[in-house]
Specification:
single chain; 3-stranded antiparallel beta sheet; disordered C terminus; mainly alpha; 10% strand
């Protein structure tokens, strides 16, 4: 697998944005898949294949990249067992476990926010939007 380029825009931004503590924290958890991976590992130690099965639609490449980033950031630990075939397990570190209540709070907020927004959006039909646009002159 290709190594992340040191002078890529992503790498440069990653170094630059660590000056702000909030941005630093969001960057560690940021991305489409990291929170899902962290929450799966909150249920206990898991192997790569287990994570792949439990996280719908994640590609093998993306799971590998996200696991590597989480490990490099100290949020998860990777344990390799000297067996044939090789066995690798992933667990949350103490720092990773500290994020779980934050993820739970984000989940609760997302549930409340989604129901409000989806409820409002679904109440509007295309006809209502068209009538509203005609009335306002748009």
């Amino acid at each position: 697998m290709a190594k992340i380029k040191e002078n890529s825009t992503n790498s440069l931004n990653r170094r630059f944005l660590t000056d702000c503590n909030l941005t630093y924290a969001v960057q560690l958890m940021g991305g489409r898949w990291k929170l899902l991976i962290l929450m799966q590992l909150n249920t206990g130690t898991q192997r790569y294949g287990e994570l792949k099965k439990k996280i719908a639609n994640i590609t093998e490449r993306m799971l590998t990249l996200q696991l590597r980033e989480l490990e490099a950031d100290g949020l998860i630990a990777r344990h390799v067992f000297a067996e044939v075939p090789p066995r690798v397990e992933y667990t949350l570190t103490d720092i990773g476990r500290e994020i779980v209540p934050i993820c739970d709070a984000l989940h609760a907020w997302g549930t409340r926010h989604r129901s409000q927004v989806v409820g409002e959006v679904s109440a509007l039909s295309h006809e209502n939007v068209a009538v509203n646009n005609m009335l306002t002159g748009i």
